[in-house]
Amino acid sequence: MSETDETPILDVRDLRVAVDGKEILQGLTLAIAPGETHAIMGRNGSGKSTLSAAIMGHPRYEVTGGDIRYRGESILDMPVHERARAGIFLSFQYPVALPGVSVSNFLRQAVKAVRGDQVPTKQFRPLVKENLQRLDIPQSFMTRYVNDGFSGGEKKRLEMLQMLMLQPALAILDETDSGLDIDALKVVSDAINLLRGEGRSQLLITHYQRILRYVKPDHVHVLLGGRIVRSGGPELADELEKHGYEWLETEAA
Fold first, then answer.
1. CA 201 remoteness from chain centre
2. How big is the CA angle at 124 (ends 121 and 125), to the nearest 5 degrees?
3. Long-range pairs, 54-57, Cβ under 8 A, ≥24
4. Over the range 90-116, which residues count as b (16 or more CB within 10 Å of their CB) and which as e?
5. pTM higher than 0.70, yes or no?
6. Across the strands, what pairs with 228?
């Protein structure tokens, strides 16, 4: 894929997405430049998770109109694994458990799937150790089964560990702050900021302003009824914190 300084890393154009025959996204447009962090806020049912699933290529989410372009090229026909290999990462709101699969083996296979070849042990182990330290995760974490008996904070730490191992060009974080205590929230935010400092892009999807106190977005968008109804800087999140969504719903009506 070709890319220039002027080409958005993600360019969503008049996107319409249906789930089980019901249209959820109704003409959503969004562009993220390389190195930018954008936040999307909205009520439950506004279409936030639908957007993340559509970008990643989940087969249940049918794109009925518009386009999703990554680094200048449409990815609508690209399978999920190819989107991941191209540098798109999705952090799930509710990560699933994989009993019998150790965190170590899971990470090794994930890195192999994205890079296209096996990472030598002498490279893999130091990389894991470095990222475990970054996230304040004990080494014993690696022998546990993926998300099996994990607390909410441990699940999110594992997703951040996976993200740091994969080094995606575009990370989509779907309500990563959901259910986290303040310590876990800071760890997750630090991981996001680590990638941000390397010029990578993020799309944060959240209900609340609290994660945005630690990860300062370049742009904030409000999603209501399947469309972005307002965009602005970080101050827009402050306004939502004070006034809620009703004032924007009234304007959009």
1. 10
2. 85
3. 54/15, 54/17, 54/25, 55/10, 55/12, 55/83, 55/88, 55/90, 55/172, 55/203, 56/80, 56/83, 56/84, 56/88, 56/90, 56/172, 57/83
4. bbbbebeeeeeebbbebbbeebeebee
5. yes
6. 223
Work out whether the CA dihedral 251, 246, 38, 204 comes out positive or negative.
Answer: negative
Sequence ranges of the domains in the chain: 10-252
Enter the tokens of residue 191: 């991981």
Which class would CATH give 10-252? alpha beta
pLDDT digits (tens, 9 = 90+) for 173-230: 998 888 788 888 888 899 899 888 777 999 999 887 889 989 999 999 999 989 999 9
CA-nearest of 191, 223, 227, 218 to 205 is 223
Six token digits for residue 188: 């997750």
State the sign of the Cα–Cα–Cα–Cα dihedral 162, 168, 172, 173.
positive
Low-confidence spans in the chain with pLDDT less than 70: 1-5, 249-253
Q: 47: which 2 tokens?
A: 């279409």
Q: In what order do the strands lie in the sheet with 201-206?
A: 88-91, 170-174, 201-206, 37-41, 219-224, 227-232
Structure tokens at 251: 């304007």
